[in-house]
Amino acid sequence: MAKYTRGTVKAFSPFDARADAEALRKAMKGMGTDEETILKILTSRNNSQRQEIASAFKTLFGRDLVDDLKSELTGKFETLMVSLMRPAYIFDAHALKHAIKGAGTNEKVLTEILASRTPEELRNIKQVYLQEYEANLEDKITGETSGHFQRLLVVLLQANRDPDGRVDEGLVEQDAQVLFRAGELKWGTDEEKFITILGTRSVSHLRRVFDKYMTISGFQIEETIDRETSGDLEKLLLAVVKCIRSVPAYFAETLYYSMKGAGTDDDTLIRVMVSRSEIDLLDIRQEMRKNFAKSLHQMIQKDTSGDYRKALLLLCGGDDE
Question: pLDDT digits over 97-118, tens only?
Answer without folding.
Answer: 999 987 778 999 999 999 999 9
